[in-house]
């Protein structure tokens, strides 16, 4: 991603995506998609670079898909945030000048935010120790960044292992802990559009929301303002930790978070199986009128499809329109699409993010 950067072709590529999504949703009588554009450059808040050594000197390198032998050496990446671009060369020069920082360094990972924070992870093919800590802290102070070192099986965190992001949705600012190595939406501006669309599509409700695949609470926090209560579920332990921190950080008091997979949620809600992790949670007390799902690329499994069909409204955000369309083959039997959207999270690629709101027929 980023090697085919060409702003002059952006509108054409976006129109192709719109047409593709429209064609995929046409069998389900979907309305025309609302389209949310991306900034043309500096939109990607995270980036990962391998280092390629020529005559003993390191260079940032990227590779075309399927070709890891022919590097493309770069000094700047136009799709990456301005902060990443400003840090790239000073960081590399510092590592070249100090063997404690630069010896057997093979990868650099950047995580930045709209709020201005930057966390950099340096990955090594050698053990790193307290001597590295001293040199790394000097570099972190010099560049005003958070810094983490990784070597096989070990991680050295100098200050903290996360950044604090701020996202503004419908005039309200939400704060998010975004952990190193955890999933976050890479395009912050488009993420704000996604959150705003989901909030608008949800409307105001007197009943409750069931959310599957809640991640770090990206959608959970804004959506909590539109429902009486939210039961949010997520399987990843690190995402659950971040989500709990974000719920507390924003003083949200109507969300209950449980660590369950979507399959386990189905088993719990259908009474097939009891879970200790649900101890103290009165499932019978919820009145779910809406279910929100943001599944992985594989989409919803058959059991989860059957579960969500039982709710009056389904708000579905998808990172893979092909699996979304496959799921809609089943959901369309009981629900109709009343709104849909295209979010251009990944300009200059064929990837697209989309959303649909379905209501029971």
Automatic annotation (TrEMBL):
S-adenosyl-L-methionine binds at residues 185, 213, 218, 234, 294. Pfam families: tRNA_U5-meth_tr. The active site is at 319, 319 (nucleophile), 353 (proton acceptor). Coiled coil: none annotated. InterPro entries: MeTrfase_TrmA_AS, MeTrfase_TrmA_CS, SAM-dependent_MTases_sf, TrmA_MeTrfase, U5_MeTrfase_fam. It catalyses: uridine(341) in tmRNA + S-adenosyl-L-methionine = 5-methyluridine(341) in tmRNA + S-adenosyl-L-homocysteine + H(+); uridine(54) in tRNA + S-adenosyl-L-methionine = 5-methyluridine(54) in tRNA + S-adenosyl-L-homocysteine + H(+). One of its GO terms (biological process) is tRNA methylation. Keywords: Methyltransferase, S-adenosyl-L-methionine, Transferase, tRNA processing. GO terms for molecular function: rRNA binding; tRNA (uracil(54)-C5)-methyltransferase activity, S-adenosyl methionine-dependent; tRNA binding. PROSITE patterns: SAM_MT_RNA_M5U (PS51687), TRMA_1 (PS01230), TRMA_2 (PS01231). Its EC number is 2.1.1.35. It is an enzyme of class 2 (transferase). One of its GO terms (cellular component) is cytosol. Dual-specificity methyltransferase that catalyzes the formation of 5-methyluridine at position 54 (m5U54) in all tRNAs, and that of position 341 (m5U341) in tmRNA (transfer-mRNA). Belongs to the class I-like SAM-binding methyltransferase superfamily. RNA M5U methyltransferase family. TrmA subfamily. PANTHER family: TRNA/TMRNA (URACIL-C(5))-METHYLTRANSFERASE, TRNA_TMRNA (URACIL-C(5))-METHYLTRANSFERASE. NCBIfam families: trmA_only (TIGR02143). This is tRNA/tmRNA (uracil-C(5))-methyltransferase.
């Amino acid at each position: 991603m980023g090697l085919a950067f060409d702003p002059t072709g952006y509108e054409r590529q976006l129109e192709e995506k719109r047409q593709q999504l429209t064609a995929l949703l046409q069998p389900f009588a979907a309305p025309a998609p609302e389209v949310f554009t991306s900034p043309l450059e500096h939109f990607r808040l995270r980036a990962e670079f391998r280092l390629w050594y020529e005559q003993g000197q390191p260079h940032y390198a990227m590779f075309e898909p399927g070709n890891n032998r022919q590097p493309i050496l770069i000094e700047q990446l136009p799709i990456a945030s301005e902060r990443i671009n400003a840090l790239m060369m000073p960081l590399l020069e510092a590592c070249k000048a100090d063997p404690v920082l630069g010896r057997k360094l093979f990868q650099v990972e950047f995580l930045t935010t709209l709020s201005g924070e930057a966390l950099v992870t340096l990955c090594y093919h050698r053990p790193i120790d307290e001597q590295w800590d001293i040199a790394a802290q000097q570099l972190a102070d010099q560049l005003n960044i958070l810094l983490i070192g990784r070597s096989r099986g070990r991680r050295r965190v100098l200050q903290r292992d996360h950044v604090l992001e701020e996202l503004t949705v419908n005039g309200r600012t939400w704060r998010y802990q975004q952990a190193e190595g955890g999933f976050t939406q890479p395009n912050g501006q488009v993420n704000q559009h996604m959150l705003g669309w989901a909030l608008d599509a949800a409307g105001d409700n007197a009943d409750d929301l069931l959310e599957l695949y809640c991640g770090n609470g990206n959608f959970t926090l804004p959506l909590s303002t539109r429902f009486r209560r939210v039961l949010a579920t997520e399987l990843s332990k690190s995402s659950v930790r971040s989500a709990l921190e974000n719920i507390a950080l924003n003083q949200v008091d109507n969300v209950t978070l449980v660590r369950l997979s979507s399959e386990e949620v189905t088993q719990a809600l259908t009474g097939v199986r009891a879970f200790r992790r649900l101890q103290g949670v009165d499932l019978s007390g919820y009145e779910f009128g809406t279910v929100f799902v943001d599944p992985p690329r594989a989409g919803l499994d058959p059991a989860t499809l059957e579960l969500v069909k039982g709710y009056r409204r389904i708000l579905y955000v998808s990172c893979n329109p092909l699996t979304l369309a496959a799921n809609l083959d089943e959901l369309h039997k009981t629900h109709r699409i009343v709104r849909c959207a295209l979010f251009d999270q990944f300009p200059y690629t064929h990837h697209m993010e989309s959303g649909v709101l379905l209501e029971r027929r």
